[in-house]
Amino acid sequence: MTDFASIKYGEKEWIYPIIEGSEGERAIDISELRSDSGLVAYDPSYSNFAVCKSAITYIDGESGILRYRGIPIEELVKRPDFVEVAWLLIFGHKPEKDERERFRKRLTKNAHLPERMRHHFEGFPATAHPMAVTSAMINALSCFYPELFNSEWDVEFEEISAELISKIRTIAAYAYRRSKGLPYIYPDPKLRYCANFLHMLFSMPYDQYVADPEIEDALNLLFILHADHEQNCSTSTVRIVGSSQANLFASCAAGVCALWGRLHGGANVAVMEMLQQIHDGELTVKQYIEKAKQKDSGCKLMGFGHRIYKNYDPRARILKASCHRVLQKLQISDPLLDIALQLEEAALEDPYFTERKLYPNVDFYSGIIFRAIGIPTDMFTVMFVIGRLPGWIAHWHEQREDPTLRIARPRQIYTGPTPTSGQNCAEKI
Ligand code: CMC
């Protein structure tokens, strides 16, 4: 039975169907609202707007649940394998043995950057932010592989996905090496996904870095926890850009820019700055909490709060446990972890945070693990990019396959001058 909702305005009333998702989420389908009534819906930050139907990721923010293709995140990190989860997100099921092997071969084959692309890195100043370099380089890929976008779509999609998921590691590693003035290290076809990335980051021509299995597992886990989060700011950006039929590389380059900001992926850097500030004695934990509560201070408790989660972010719960495990295994004692734990405890005892249902999010503990692995702070958001790429690809593809797709084109409520008021202004000048 189809449910309906009505919208009444003045003397008129319009009836709209209720659509229901597989987890029981309901929405009023108002796609005909403007043509029926001349009214548009106003919701500036999309707090209430479902912009698409999607079968990729499910979040229940009230209960703290996150599932990729129906599988709870807790299950996917038991034996963490990022490549397998990337396949799951993009193709909708866990890979069969032959699919897994084929995809791994494609990743290995595609790890190198074209030599001429390598020279692009030299053009950036050493101080260039790795997120700017990463976005530019992903976009540049479309110049080097135009044939991928002209050929049979279904045949090439797996290849394009592998190209991007594989090359992002090389781009990220080269951006880092360039910023440090270190020689580039080519990918090693014998290494698995995360070990190969760590090799490109940390090996020297005369000294091969060998990844500790614990570190490899921790990186797989981190990438998996970042791999998708339905219609967040960067994924929505990828979808919006893709809706104009821009290619996958161009759409993902835009996603990187959206992720960069401190309220989104850039929060993992902001958290470390906050912890360091407290560690350096600029503020105590208590003083920081008080400052974060004052709206005019321009300061927030970074790594806390979420548009969707009104409960503990399940990714943060896993990362907190992983933090303890990784640091213990690597025999590292990080004072920033102690400060993070104190901040969390103080916030969760404070009515400001509990009443607003503000809990640690994915960015609160991730940086401490990145740091233990040896990743420098300005690379943290690039690490988020590597993890999030399968999600962006999956959403771009899902949208592309949707026969009802139209270009994304929001409306606005115009509040500028009218011809009459505009004339008045001109006269005054
Ligand atoms: N510190 C202090 N106050 C906060 C915080 C915070 N971290 N987060 C939200 N609030 C306040 C906010 O000012 C508002 O107060 P009031 O009701 O008095 O006006 C109230 O809590 C509700 O905020 P909201 O409407 O739930 O926030 P939002 O959905 O507009 O923003 C957010 C979500 C994640 C941008 C925000 O919580 C924030 O800025 N957090 C810090 C940055 C951060 O950690 N970002 C990473 C997000 S998770 C990973 C990702 O997306 O990349």
Largest sheet descriptor = 3 strands, antiparallel
Beta-strand content: 5-15%
> What share of residues is helical?
40-55%
Q: Supply the number of helical segments.
A: 19
Mean pLDDT: 94
* CA-based gyration radius: 23 Å
Which ions, cofactors or small ligands are bound in this entry? carboxymethyl coenzyme *A
What's the number of extended β-strand segments?
6
User: Quick one: overall form?
Assistant: globular
Structural class: mainly alpha
Strand order of the largest sheet: 1-2-3
- The span between the termini is 62 Å
Taken in chain order, the helices and strands follow as: EEEHEEEHHHHHHHHHHHHHHHHHH
Low-pLDDT segments, ≥5 res: none
Give an account of the 3D structure.
With 429 residues, the chain is mainly alpha-helical. It has helices spanning 33-37, 73-76, 82-91, 97-109, 115-123, 130-144, 153-180, 193-202, 213-226, 233-243, 248-260, 267-279, 285-293, 314-329, 335-348, 351-355, 362-373, 380-400, 419-428, and strands spanning 4-9, 12-20, 26-28, 57-60, 65-68, 71-72. It contains 19 helices and 6 strands. The chain has a 3-stranded antiparallel β-sheet with strand order 1-2-3. Strands 4-5-6 form a 3-stranded antiparallel β-sheet. Helix 6 (130-144) packs antiparallel against helix 11 (248-260). The model has no long low-confidence stretch (mean pLDDT 94). The structure holds carboxymethyl coenzyme *A.
